[in-house]
Amino acid sequence: MSTIRSFEGFQPVSLKQEGDYQPSETDQLSTEEGDPGTDPEPRQISRQPSVTESTLYPNPYHRPFVSRKYFATRPGAIETAIEDLKGHIAKTSGETIQGFWLLTEIDHWNNEKERILLVTDKSLLICKYDFIMLSCVQLQWIPLSSVYRICLGKFVFPGMSLDKRQGEGLRIYWGSLEEQSLFSRWNPWSTEVPYATFTEHPMKYTSEKFLEICKLSGFTSKLVPAIQNAHKNSTGSGRGKGLMVLTEPILIETYMGLMSFIGNRNKLGYSLARGSIGF
User: Fold this and answer.
1) Is 259 domain-assigned?
2) CA torsion angle for 67, 112, 97, 100 (degrees, to 10)?
3) What is d(CA 181, CA 186) in angstroms, rounded to the nearest whole number?
4) Among the ranges 21-30, 61-70, 176-185, which has the highest mean pLDDT value?
5) In terms of residue numbers, what domain contains 144?
6) Are 257 and 162 in contact, with CB atoms under 8 Å apart?
7) Which of 4, 141, 213, 273 is the most exposed place for a label (fewest CB within 10 A)?
8) Tens digit of pLDDT for each residue in 99-124?
9) Shortest CA distance to 71 belongs to which of 63, 62, 81?
C-alpha cells in the first residue's frame, strides 16, 4: 500500500553526536517542577535561535526549487542547445563562433521571450530554442555589417502606459525606423521590426556558468568589437557611418499592455515547468 506525502518544504534539524544530549525546553520545565526541596525562583529559559529561510538561502536566486522550473537550467539542456547551433552553423555558413549567451528579448509590445544569442565574425543570430523538446524553433540571422546603432540604458514608457517595467537593457538597430510600416509597428506578432531589445535572463544567478552566459555586459563586450570588425571588412557600401554606441533610455511604446501583463507574469515566453495538469 503506497502513501502520498506533500514535500512542499524541509524543516531544518540539528544533528548531534552521542553524548551531546541537551534537554529540550519541556524537559527543563519538567525537571525544574519535579525538584522537591528547592526554593522556587524564576528561571530563565534559553531558546535556541531558529534557522530562518534567509540563512538557508542567503541569495534568493540560488533557490534550487525555483531554478529547476526553467528547463534551460536542467542538466545538459544548454549544452545540447549549443551543440545543435554549432552543427547548424558549421553546415550552413562555416563562420567562426565567438560566443553564446542566454538572454531575454523584449519585443515592441513588452513581451518577454527566452532567446539564445550567438555572435560570429559576420553575423548575430537570435535563436528561439525549445528547451523542453530540445530543438531550435526559429533562427533570425542578422549581418553585423548592417548594425549601425546600439543603445544601453533604462527602460522608459509613455506617461499613460499601464504596464511598465524596471531595469536596464540593450537595443540593437539594423534598419531604419522611418522605413518601418505602421502595420508592423502595431502588430504584436510582426517579425519586420528593425531592432531587437534584450535584458538579462532571470536565471542569471543560478550558477557560475549561467552568470557568464546571462550577463548583458559580457554579451555587449563581444558584440561591439565584432560589429566594428565587420564594418571594416565589409565590401558593400553600407551606411558609411560606422557603429554608434549610445547610453540613453530605451523606449518601449506600449500603453494598455494587457497581453504583456498576462504573459510576463506567467512567464509564457520561457520554457518553464507549469506544474501537474492531471490528477
Assistant:
1) yes
2) -20
3) 9
4) 176-185
5) 64-266
6) yes
7) 4
8) 999 999 999 999 999 999 999 999 99
9) 81
- Would residue 97 count as lying in a domain? yes
If one counts the domains in the chain, the total is 1
CATH number at 76 reads 2.30.29.30
Residue 158 covered by a domain: yes
Label residue 238 left, alpha or beta by phi (over 0 means left) and psi (-120 to 50 means alpha): left
φ, ψ dihedrals at 124, nearest 5°:
-115, 125
Stated pTM of the model: 0.74
CA angle, 258 then 171 then 262, to 5°? 15
- Say if 36 falls within a structural domain: no
The pLDDT of 210-221, averaged and rounded, is 95
> Apex CA 120: angle with CA 248 and CA 180, to 5°?
50
Tell me the C-alpha distance between 193 and 184, whole Å: 7
